[in-house]
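Hi C.,

You asked whether I'd gotten around to modeling the 370-residue construct. I have! Everything is below, sequence then structure, no commentary in between.
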Amino acid sequence: MARNEIQIAHHMATDRMFAAMPWVEKEQIVLSPSHPSIGCECEEIVVGGERGEGIYAKGEIILPVHVQCLCFKIAVLMPADEFVRKLRGWMRGEAAWPAMDEYAGWLGLGGKAEPEAVRPVGQAERALEAEVEEARLALASLPADTDEAVREVMETWLADTEGNLAREREIGAALWDLLKVPAEDALPDDWRMVAEELRRQGYDLYYKYTKDGIREFVARERGAKESGYMVVGREQILVKQGAFSARAAQRMEGELWRDARDALSDAIGEWLQSVGFDQVDIARANYDQRRRLLEEIGEMELKRWQDGRVSWIDDVPPEARARVVGWVDHDKAAIAAFSAVDPLNLPSLDAYHKMELADMILQTKIDGEW
C-alpha cells in the first residue's frame, strides 16, 4: 500500500511539472522493465497513442493505471532549435511566449501575473451600507432632549445593522476567496461548498489549538473496541479497549496542549507588545497571565466603547481594538459593531469563528433568514 501511495504522489508531481513546462509538448508512457506480461491495461496503453508508441497529450493518461502499477512517463520535447529560438526571443523581449510567462510565474521568477481581482459588492451588502448610513444620520440628528429609551432603540438599530453588514462582508469575502464567485451569482451549492470548507478549517484549528478539541482528537486516535464483559457484583459491564492506554492518552493530551498553549502565548505576547507593553514584562508572563491581561484589556475597551469614551490604548486603530474585544466575547463584539472575527489570528478563536461563519452562511444564504 505504501508503494502504491508513493507512486500516486510521484505521478501527480510529474503531471504538474509537465503541464507547467512549455517545452514539453507531449508525454510517453513507458512500461516498467519489471512488468510481467499479464495482459493488463498498461500493455495496451504503451502500444497505443501516436504511431503506436504510447505518446499522448499531456495529462491524457493518469498513472498509476492500477494498483501496484510501476509504469512511468517521459517527456516528449519540442525540437531543440525551436526551443532555443523561442527562448531567445522571449528573453530579449522580441517575441511573446505566454506559456513561458506562466512558467516563470509558477517558479516565482516574476512572470506576468494577472492583477488580483477586486471582490464585487453585492446588492445585499450595498443595501446594508445604505441602511447603516441612514441609521447614523438618524441618530446624529436626534435632538439633545430626546428620550433615552428612543435613543437606545436608535443605537440598537445602528449596532445591529453594522453587525449585519460586517457579517455580509465576511460571507462575501469567504465566497470570493474560495471560488472567486460574486455573491450575486452564487448558487446554493456554492454556498454549501464554502460552508463545508470553513467548517473543515474550523475543526482543523479546533482539534489543534483547544483543550476540548485536543481531547476529542486523542480519543478518536485511540479508538475503542469491545473486548468482553466484566462482572461487577450482579451486573455485567461491557469493557472497551483502546489502541493505547488511558495513561498514554493523557500524556498525549498534555503534550499537544503544551504545544498549542505555547503557540497561543506567543501570539498574545506579540499583540501585547504591538500596543506598547514592555517586551521584558511580557517575557516574564506565562500563558495564563497573558490571557488574563488580554481579557482585562478587552473588558475595559468594551466598557469604554459602551460609554462613548476614547480608547485608552493610544495610537491603536479601531480594528486593532476590535481584536481584544473579540477575544472577550464574540456576541458582545458584534453588538459593539465589530465583526466577531479574530484579527489577532489566535487560532483557538478562529476555529470557533470559522464554524460560526459556516452556520451563518447556511442560515442566511440557503435557509434565507438572519
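If it helps when you're writing up: Strands lie at 24-30, 55-57, 72-77, 225-232, 235-241.

Thanks,
B.
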